[in-house]
UniProtKB/TrEMBL annotation:
Start and end residues of each RNA polymerase sigma-70 region domain: 29-90
A GO MF term: sigma factor activity
Keywords on record: Sigma factor, Transcription, Transcription regulation
Keyword match Transcription regulation: yes
Protein name per the record: RNA polymerase sigma-70 factor
Keyword Transcription regulation: yes
Domain RNA polymerase sigma factor 70 region 4 type per the UniProt entry, residue ranges: 127-169
Family assignment from sequence similarity: Belongs to the sigma-70 factor family. ECF subfamily.
The organism of origin for this protein: Abyssalbus ytuae
GO biological process, one term: DNA-templated transcription initiation
SUPFAM superfamilies, sorted: Sigma2 domain of RNA polymerase sigma factors (SSF88946), Sigma3 and sigma4 domains of RNA polymerase sigma factors (SSF88659)
Length: 195
């Protein structure tokens, strides 16, 4: 079972053209790498492209690459790509400094776990049906009360509660399907008073 392999063993399999081992490695790290990049750029499309390019590059170099610590290699690659992006976009030194600050802060695993879950919740929210998403956004991201939402959208408070409940249920299900093991405490710290 490849999922029980160490990073080193997985990379050895990848070097032998094992595409399933590559997928396992990708699934293990791509979302964490995305969160790391997104915390710096706040640009979903660019971050997705960066992560995709890193894995394409890794696959193309699988035969000759001498990587001893795959996790460290992947995150260094993200940082390198972000620096290149900043340079190409003529981004200020202030933003480069921000990258370094975030890099340091992400060494704290709790910060990383929180950010990863926050991003996963946001991605799940984007998948909600239109009306459900609209109400969830007003509540979660604009901090409006049920009463304020009901008045703004001219619907009952119960309808607002139903849509928020539907959104939370859908998000939790989506997170579970993505493999997140979520405690009530960690999810409530993300969703605040919605739960």
């Amino acid at each position: 079972m490849l999922k029980s392999y160490s990073d080193k063993e997985l990379f050895e399999q990848i070097a032998l053209d094992n595409s399933h081992a590559f997928k396992v490695l990708h699934d293990m790290y791509s979302s964490k790498m995305f969160v790391y990049a997104f915390n710096v750029l706040k640009n979903k499309q660019v971050c997705e492209d960066i992560i995709q390019n890193i894995f394409i590059d890794l696959w193309s170099k699988r035969k000759e690459a001498k990587i001893t610590n795959i996790k460290s290699y992947l995150f260094r690659a993200v940082k390198y790509q972000l620096c290149n992006y900043f340079r190409d976009q003529k981004i200020s030194n202030e933003d480069i400094t921000r990258l370094n600050i975030i890099d340091v802060s992400l060494n704290a695993s709790k910060k990383m776990e929180y950010d990863e879950l926050e991003e996963a919740v946001y991605i799940s929210y984007l998948k909600l049906p239109k009306r459900c998403k609209e109400i969830f956004e007003l509540s979660r991201y604009q901090n409006k009360s049920h009463k304020e939402i009901s008045e703004e959208l001219k619907i009952s408070i119960q309808a607002v509660k139903n849509q928020i409940s539907k959104a939370l249920s859908s998000i939790k299900k989506d997170l579970h399907e993505q493999g997140y093991v979520i405690s009530f405490i960690s999810l409530s710290s993300i969703l605040g008073n919605l739960i």
